[in-house]
Every structure is written in C-alpha cells, then in structure tokens.
Amino acid sequence: MTPDFKLWVQEVFAPFGRVTVKRFFGGGGVYLGDTMFAAIFNDQIYLKGDGDSRAAFQAEGCEEFVWTNPKTKTIWNSVYFSMPAMLFEDEDELRCWAERAFQTALKAKAGRAPRRRKPVSREI
After folding, report:
1. Most buried in the list 47, 56, 118, 121, measured by CB within 10 Å?
2. For residues 9 and 30, is the Cβ–Cβ distance under 8 A?
3. What is the Rg, in whole angstroms, of the alpha carbon atoms belonging to the chain?
4. Which pTM does this prediction carry?
C-alpha cells in the first residue's frame, strides 16, 4: 500500500473522523482510535459487518471479503464487505455506514476475551 493510497483512504473517511491506516495481513486496517472498523485488500475498502448488517451490504451489491489460505486451502469468511460505491459521493451516507461498521467492531471487540500481556521485568 503506497503512502498516497493511505492518505486517500484517510481523506475518504474524513467526514467520519480522523482515522489512521496501519498494515494488516498484507493489506491495511482503518482505525478510529484503537478500533479497526475497515480493512483494505487489493486497493479495495471493506467495512466491518455482522449478521445484522449483512442484508444492507447485500442490497447494495457489496461482496464479502473471502480469503483462501494458499497452504491449507482453508476458506475464511471475514465479515468485511466491500464499501458501497455510493459512499464515495455522499458524505452523510458515508458517516452512517462508517458508524455502523465502527459500532459493529466495538461490539465484536467487547465480546472477545482480553489479551494476556507478558509481564515486564524491571531492573532497579
């Protein structure tokens, strides 16, 4: 992902808030604060979805991001959906869809067990 593309993604989401883009599994993750609500793969933006929002994505003709492990051929359905094209032209709709994806990501994050942190040794 080029620096110009990262900057463009930040500009796309500017109506929603100040987002950051970080490397994520060969693509990128789009974060608001410490919560990733969108992913970037092959220069395509995907918003976080769930069972509740799946129908809305499908109604807009969005495709679910599916990844196949090249070694095991295991298929992974990600619950990330391609961003509807209309959002690039309509800031109000962009804010609504981004907020829905963000809330979905927060809900998923709350349902996970907290990460165990390794103890830090300190010498005095």
Report:
1. 47
2. yes
3. 16
4. 0.80
